[in-house]
Design a protein that fits this description.
The complex is a heterodimer of chains A (about 220) and B (about 300). With about 220 residues, chain A is of the alpha/beta class. Chain A is about 35% helix and about 25% strand. Chain B starts with a helix and ends in a 5-residue tail after the last helix. Classes of the chains: A alpha/beta (about 220), B alpha+beta (about 300).
Chain lengths: ~220, ~300
């Protein structure tokens, strides 16, 4: 589903942000992407989502050659991927339901479908009772669940999660992890970036470790 | 499209004040342009009304031969632009002249023992846009003819007026151009403010799979709507002014030139003005999109 071949990226400094990155993620697989802060996890996820460009190598996501997608066609890639941001990126002026429905609106779904899919996504993350609340009225864990619901509402084939539990306490983090695992069961490929080693040890998922921009064996 | 219109309205609502200020600015600018246009249209109509009375008078020499007259008459009657021709003999010209001044008995006229007036042809031309040019060309043709003393058609006045109209035309184009440029920048700025108030939302839209068109169209519509509303208000404002002038001053205008009315801008020009206002709105949005929004699509 995701293939990276000799990917390199530099921001112009001395050490490259990423160098010689090679790995593959199978369809329906759940992997942890880990490494210390600043190791290049976020850069790697951003490359897969094409919010960052890379200097060398090849990246294939769901059969699309990321380096060759013209800017005006980028939306096609992003509709296949649900991205969960560490800072949630919820719109404060919209309530929970509207925040999730927003992802459907921007792809031009009709009203009936928006209502149905949004309700379904909120049900999946257990937040139907909070549908009228605004982000600032929610706890960190709840906000992250809204963000996950928004990433899921367009039924993506891939979920890229950038430290989705980074700001949450261990108990809530586990809940969020379980949510992603639940998503994986429905055949979605999940790349879960985290530096929480305890969380990684508690599960049996494949682990990709990155340090100073290079892959290392765990 | 419905969704774009909905987004446009919600953009406007969240920035209503800025939107209204922009519309008001466009209204003022278009009113200035429109006023000049109204003045131009009316001067033009004045020229047309006045030109209906313009005729070419060919004064003949006293010793013109029959043959020479025949040639001149032939020239006049075969010209397709000529509507009618009247020959006024020396005698009838003198009689007319005396008649005109009969109320103010002048000793000078009575005492004059000879007829000083020449005989003439009064030539009326068919109405056409190039009437003046045709009269002028025809006059040139006659000036050098044998038996012709002189030709008369208010040439100096005509030339001065035409030059003035040309000046107004250039002036209108220059003012229109400058105002349009200013408006484009104002609209572009308003759209930018509208963008700033929703920046987070727009960036998220692009991140989660909105097409560039989905993001662009509401801004385009907003700019075009601003332009259109400004144009409509300006036209309404000018209409009120025109009605006011018509009611207040129509009497005096009639005295100056018979059959003249203070006119509004004609329908094609109204349409051109509205189309330009929409175009200017579109340009404003386009500049914003090119400079500001498009880089975010990458």
């Amino acid at each position: 589903m995701i293939q990276l071949f000799k990917v390199a990226k530099s921001y112009g400094g001395g050490t490259p942000a990423l160098a010689d990155i090679n790995f593959e993620v199978q369809k329906g697989e759940f992997i942890f992407l880990t490494g210390p802060s600043g190791a290049g996890k976020t850069t790697l996820l951003k490359i897969m989502y094409r919010t960052e460009k890379f200097d060398q190598g090849q990246v294939l996501v769901n059969g699309m050659n990321i380096g060759k997608i013209p800017d005006r066609k980028l939306y096609l890639l992003r509709r296949e991927i649900g991205f969960v941001f560490q800072d949630y990126k919820l719109l404060v002026k919209k309530n929970v339901f509207e925040n999730v429905a927003f992802a459907q609106e921007v792809i031009g779904a009709n009203k009936k479908r928006i209502r149905f899919k949004t309700w379904e996504a909120l049900k999946n993350v257990g937040l139907t009772h909070k549908k009228d609340s605004y982000p600032q009225q929610l706890s960190g864990g709840e906000q992250q669940r809204v963000a996950i619901a928004r990433a899921l509402v367009n039924s993506p084939k891939i979920i890229l999660a950038d430290e989705p539990t980074g700001n949450l306490d261990p108990e809530i983090s586990l809940e969020i992890l379980k949510l992603f695992e639940h998503v994986k069961k429905s055949g979605v490929t999940v790349v879960f970036a985290t530096h929480d080693q305890e969380m990684i040890r508690s599960r049996n998922h494949r682990v990709v470790v990155i340090k100073r921009g290079k892959l290392v064996t765990p | 499209m419905t969704s774009s219109a909905h987004t446009t309205l919600s953009n406007i609502k969240s920035n209503l004040q800025v939107f209204l200020v922009s519309v008001a600015t466009i209204t003022v600018a278009f009113s200035i342009l429109g006023l000049f246009l109204v003045i131009f249209v009316n001067l033009n109509s004045f020229l047309t009304t006045w030109s209906k009375h313009v005729q070419l008078i060919v004064y003949l020499e006293d010793d013109i031969s029959k043959d020479q007259r025949g040639v001149l008459e032939q020239l006049i009657s075969t010209n397709p632009d000529v509507e009618s021709m009247t020959f006024i003999s020396k005698e009838s010209a003198w009689a007319n002249f005396k008649n005109t001044f009969s109320t103010k008995k002048s000793d000078f006229i009575d005492e004059l023992k000879f007829n000083p007036l020449p005989s003439s042809y009064n030539i009326k031309f068919r109405p056409s846009p190039e009437r003046f040019t045709k009269i002028r060309n025809f006059a040139e043709l006659f000036k050098e003819r044998e038996g012709v003393e002189s030709v008369e058609y208010g040439e100096k006045w005509l030339r001065a007026f035409e030059k003035f109209m040309l000046f107004i035309r250039i002036f209108l184009l220059a003012v229109g151009g400058l105002l349009s440029l200013g408006l484009i920048l104002i609209i572009s700025n308003t759209i930018k403010l509208s963008f700033y108030s929703r920046q987070e939302e727009i960036e998220l839209m692009l991140l989660i799979g909105a097409t560039p068109g989905f993001v662009r169209i509401p801004f385009m519509l907003e700019g075009m709507l601003q332009g259109l509303l400004g144009g409509i208000f300006a036209l309404a404002l000018i209409k009120f002014l025109q009605l006011y002038i018509q009611v207040q001053f129509q009497g005096s205008l009639e005295t100056i030139v018979r059959g003249m009315e203070f006119q509004y801008i004609s329908q094609p020009i109204i349409l051109i003005l509205l189309a330009s206002s929409v175009f200017i709105g579109w340009m404003g949005s386009y500049i914003f999109i090119r400079q500001f929004l498009s880089p975010k699509f990458k």
